[in-house]
Amino acid sequence: MKRAMELAQKGLGFVSPNPLVGCVIVKDDKIVAEGYHQKYGEAHAEVNAIHNLSSSIDPKDCTLYVNLEPCCHHGKTPPCADLIISKGFKKVVVCNADPNPLVAGKGIEKLKQAGIEVTQGICEKEGRFLNRRFFTFHEKKRPYIILKWAQTADGFISKWPIPKNRAENKISREEAQKLVHQMRANEDAILVGKNTVLNDDPYLNTRLAEGKNPMRIIITGEEIPFNYNIFNEDARIVVFNPFKTEVKDHVHYIKLKPGNVVPQILESLYKVGISSVLVEGGLFTLSSFIIAGMWDEQHVFVNPKLNFGQGIKAPKTILNTDFQIVGNDEYHLILNTRSSK
Asked: What pLDDT, on a 0 to 100 scale, did the predictor assign at position 117?
């Protein structure tokens, strides 16, 4: 099962809104075939593993391991449960039941009704963490929220006023920046506030990593001119604002009601199938998610050799003592065990 999850992880950034799924076929305690879901709309893990099984091996002599319940409905591809049954497997081991209402135990029940011995709950905790985006989307009816920022050793995320030379305001160094770009490629969307657009003029792309450019989301209380880098056509753009709902070229404007905007934004993104969002700032935007309790992870990069002395303070959080080192920066990953719906 752990090998199945290793395979599943390879699909991160390519299979959303589908889950990360890997499959391993075992005969006589040896792996004889394996596969994983590689891209949304293409073959599922079970299909790829069965395809890689030698024709000289009879499936009835094998056990199929998969980290998520086989699907039982027609979507982009036919039901995997039907394929497993038709091939004659007699034993299937499943890590997690699928929280998607279209499956939700029906796949496992279908296998059992066909006379297949099904074992459930193997590495269940690890499996839920692997597919934490997928479980959050279906159970909490919102995207999985990842907050990211960089701060100096003395706890600032920016100088103030913003220097005309933006290089003077840079905190993270090269290796940390590469990791952030890979994080962007792994998620469905990236979100920033108006001030980040106006002050930093970011591209918010994945130029330092492999993978797609995520959808860009802006929260603003005023019109932002189209001459900023974020409005290039490398990705779809959603602008949450208090004025209008309309579509202009590749930019989709969505009007927000007065009050707490975070639940409104998450509800809107859920409805269009966005399963994960990387929130990159600025301070007001990050703090809005923290205060609402609607966040799942914080990724904080600290430059231990840089001090600003004054400026814009970083969001309040408790940094880890067991942080990683990325290049020359500290990398803190904080999980929210009490995240709100």
From this structure: 98
- Return d(Cα 8, Cα 21) in angstroms, integer: 4
Torsion sign across C-alpha atoms 162, 159, 205, 281: negative
Phi and psi at 93, nearest 5°, equal -115, 125
Tens-place pLDDT, residues 91-123: 999 999 999 998 999 999 999 999 999 999 999
Report residue 261 CA to chain centroid gap: 21
Count of Cβ atoms closer than 10 Å to residue 71 Cβ? 26
Q: Say which of 46, 69, 187, 297 is annotated catalytic.
A: 46
Position 341 scores a pLDDT of 75
CA–CA distances in Å: residue 54 to residues 3, 67, 178, 305: 19, 22, 40, 56
DSSP state of 242: S
pTM reported for the whole predicted model: 0.95
Query: Are residues 163 and 316 in contact, defined by beta-carbon separation less than 8 angstroms?
Result: no
d(CA 48, CA 67): 14
Q: At 142, is the secondary structure helix, strand, or coil?
A: coil
What's the rounded Cα separation, in Å, for the pair 147 and 183? 11
What percentage of the chain reaches a pLDDT higher than 90?
Answer: 94
pLDDT in tens, 280-333: 989 999 999 999 999 999 999 999 999 999 999 999 999 989 999 999 999 999
CB neighbour class for 137 (10 Å; exposed up to 12, middle 13-18, buried from 19): buried
Please check whether residue 203 is in contact with residue 224, taking contact to mean a CB–CB distance below 8 angstroms: no
How far, in Å, CA of 185 to CA of 205, rounded?
8
Give one word for 320, left, alpha or beta, with left for phi > 0 and alpha for psi -120 to 50: beta
- CB atoms inside a 10 Å sphere around CB 98: 24
Our answer to whether residue 46 is catalytic in this structure is yes
